[in-house]
Amino acid sequence: MARIVVIGAGVGGLATAARLAVSGHEVTVFERSDTVGGKLGRYVHDTPAGSFHFDTGPSLLTLPQVFHDLFEATGAKLDEYLDLTPLDPIVRHVFPGGGPALDSCADPDEFAARIGVALGDRAAADWRRLWRRAARVWTASHRDILRRTVDSPRDLAALAWRLGDLAAIGPGRTLRGLGRSHLSDPRLRMLLDRYATYTGADPRRAPAALVAVPYAELTFGGWYLRGGLGTLADALLSRCLDLGVTVRTGETVTRIDAAGGRVHGVRLAGVHAPVPADVVVANADALTVYRDLLPHPGRLAALTDRSLAGFVLLLGVRGDSGLAHHNVFFPTDYHAEFDAVFGDPGRGVRARPATDPTIFVTVADDPTARPTGHEAWFVLVNAARHGTAPDAVNWRRPGLADAYADRILDVLAARGVDVRDRLVFRETRTPADLDAATAAPGGSIYGTAGGLLRPANRGPVHGLWLVGGSTHPGGGLPMVTLSAQIVADEIGPAW
Fold first, then answer.
1. Which ranges in 212-307 belong to alpha helices (H)?
2. Domain assignment present for 50
3. What is the pLDDT of residues 121-139, one digit of tens each?
4. What pLDDT digit, counting tens, does each position of 426-435 carry?
5. Which label site among 145, 161, 228, 235 has the fewest CB atoms less than 10 Å from its CB?
6. CA nearest neighbour of 142 among 474, 494, 434
7. Which residues of the chain have pLDDT under 50?
8. Could you give the CA distance from residue 252 to residue 115 in angstroms, rounded to a whole number?
9. Residue 166 sits in the same domain as residue 92
């Protein structure tokens, strides 16, 4: 039986702790915040009309089988803890210039038919052709990448890729390039580009292999958890406690002790004596690990390409807006938005708040989330990370957050959704706020920008492992949960 310390009680940390506990290890989780869940945050705003409840992180659960597997592996059933509700539409896409919206769904044939009705027969045929390629990419990724460690480019090169897989994955090709070669309708290209942001990346530089992301969502479905996605954190905490895991909130790990090339324990803020451990699992951003907890210049040098962040509005809205659960309002110029979010130092373009951004609006049809006759809106805009570098924005600049919130509401109104006179309240969450709340450097949602090769799960010293959205196999709830499975399998059982 190993003494295992898990740093961070996000989904990755809790899932790893539960898997290791059921394997017979002694597991302690230290979480700097007073609550568990990490980026799977929640917020309640009380008003005279009643309480508004928000998920302030992920708003969609995909690949539900990953979570069924997790709960079954730890001796439980997912349905005993969570109420999964399938969504149709998964996302309503509203394109610039008017015209019909496009509702995505988990039936590929039905979605292609909806594309035909909204965008024409040629667009539907294009999508079917892209879909066949996406299926090959997903199959290869799921088989060879998503459930095993990938520590270096050599690991990728050594995989027994089939020639058809390589042709579909298109090494060196971008997601934007894939869309331009397969999709004649610019609206479908915008839809495809958006999936790069699921991994925090710019579609103009993100690998074409990310076509597997929409395939997973639109094949296995998108789901809402009744009561909010934060209930997943509650369920994982319950499993951990039932399995004997010690979870200590309000405890900040300041350093990993690793003399002689192996871990020996961790140091806690305000505590003189170290906490001994045979194994340490860090559910923290890889940048935080290699900059602060276990300084390692070699690993740190590879973490400069940071993912995008998000600017959030939490709105209490009177009345019924008639929106879907998830809605995307696209801009006229998607290219200009990515220039604003990521900057381009080579062309002297600094990052800045996008003036005409894509706006993502989540309105949960859940009576537990809002008072009767009201809606709780989670509004997300792609944003540059917080900082002073050319590819960042100082989101703490006085007046910026309120001014940008005004701008977003004005843009929504221009796109036909004006709620400015129906607001009960509004609050903002900037990338700087996410940085402070979750120790995500700069508020980068996914750590490093998306790609096939992300920071390895295996640390540079014996006994150190990394899980979570900043590491392999990537960001998003199912990928984070798969990272926990990879690490728990590598550590192995206590007997």
1. 212-220, 231-242, 286-288, 297-300
2. no
3. 999 999 999 999 999 999 9
4. 999 999 999 9
5. 161
6. 474
7. 160, 163
8. 50
9. yes
